[in-house]
Amino acid sequence: MRTIGEPWPELNDGLFYSDRVRPSDSGLTLVDFYSTKYKSSAPLQGWLQRIENGQITVDGTIVTDPTKVLSAASELQYHRLPWREPDAPYLLGVLFEDDHLIALNKPSGLQVLPGGLFQHRTVLTQLQWHASKQSSIFACQQTNPVPVHRLGRGTSGILLCAKTKLAKARISAYFADGTSTVGSTRIEDADISKTRKISKTYRALASGILRENEVIINQPIGMLKYPGVAKGLYVASPSGKLALSKVCVLERNIQYNCTLVEVEIQSGRPHQIRIHLSFIGHPLIGDPLYVTGGQPQCFDPESVEESFAQDGGYQRPLKPVPGDCGYHLHAHRLVFSHPFTNKVTEIIVPLPSILQTQKESKEIEHSSSVQDTK
Predict the structure, then answer these.
(1) Phi, psi (5° rounding) for residue 29?
(2) Is residue 313 within 8 Å of residue 322, measured between CB atoms?
(3) Is residue 93 within 8 Å of residue 105, measured between CB atoms?
């Protein structure tokens, strides 16, 4: 398998965030503006530190006085200083590529898009570097590849990316169409692969022993306020958005009290498989966050961490967050109608050994031994 990827630099380049003061915010002090508008980024003392460090400009001039009164239409810019992001893999296997699409084999531990501590060490960054290198070699090739769906940081496997805006729009429409049909799909008739122009199949290792050979889960997924997650945490919620997963048992391991399953999803809610399996009482083995009921295992809505890190932002949360790894979930198979040729395209990526059935493991061992004797 061909791979792409460049080693990460020690530090990222930092970030710049720009704002224009609205008339309704005129008269606020500089610290009041940032500590209220961006309270999820840092506590009050953290914003005071950033201002005093000279990290904020007003109309192009560094301002270190937190009590400066702002005027409407003033241009503000906050400079988040460069930092060393947590370790992350960087090599990506190329599973499929043409002029419109590229499908990658994403390793566990690599975030897809910028967020939180990972602003630079992402799949998107590696795609941009790869495209830049290609365009320098082939002057006529100008592409801007971007992922068209997400995989959790701890999830491995197939990630489909579009090279052009039109390809992205068409593939995104495939995903949206599948999600929109969830409410009209009868549970007893849920044949997910037949209702979509694109279907994804995952392997997962669930805790406990699933009694049924097949389970359809249609639990809605919503959000709740959660420490360390600025926009909120996705959880099982009766008031959330519709979601549909089809779970098929592949193997039951009584000795280790776990079940190897295959999961097809029709909707694409964040962390859907983790939430759905935990909702029915079988959270993924090693999942540090979700427990039975599709809820976080450590949850205190009143808990607020006010200590701040060296850059003024909040400390890394002590409680588990969605990006924490440890679980076993692998996007194994992708089937879609090519957005330009209409050809049915199937992509399959090898399975981690822990997600192989006993039969698959023996077949792989046999194949390897045959190769060794040649």
Answers:
(1) -80, 165
(2) no
(3) yes
Q: Which two tokens stand for residue 112?
A: 């897809």
Distance, in Å, from the CA atom of 220 to the CA atom of 179, rounded to the nearest integer, reads 12
| Cβ contact 15:80 at 8 Å | yes
Give me the residue label for tokens 């969830």. Answer: 182
**Could you tell me which residues come within 8 angstroms of residue 260 by beta carbon, excluding any fewer than 6 positions away?**
203, 204, 205, 206, 249, 250, 251, 252, 253, 355, 357
pLDDT digit string (tens) for 182-200?
765 555 555 655 657 999 9
The pLDDT of residue 373 is: 63
Most distant pair of Cα atoms in the chain: their distance:
79
- Give 39-62 as a DSSP string: TTT--HHHHHHHHHTT-EEETTEE
How far is it, in rounded angstroms, from Cα 100 to Cα 163? 5
132, two tokens:
């830049």
> What is the tens place of the pLDDT at every residue in 335-362?
999 999 999 999 999 999 999 999 999 9
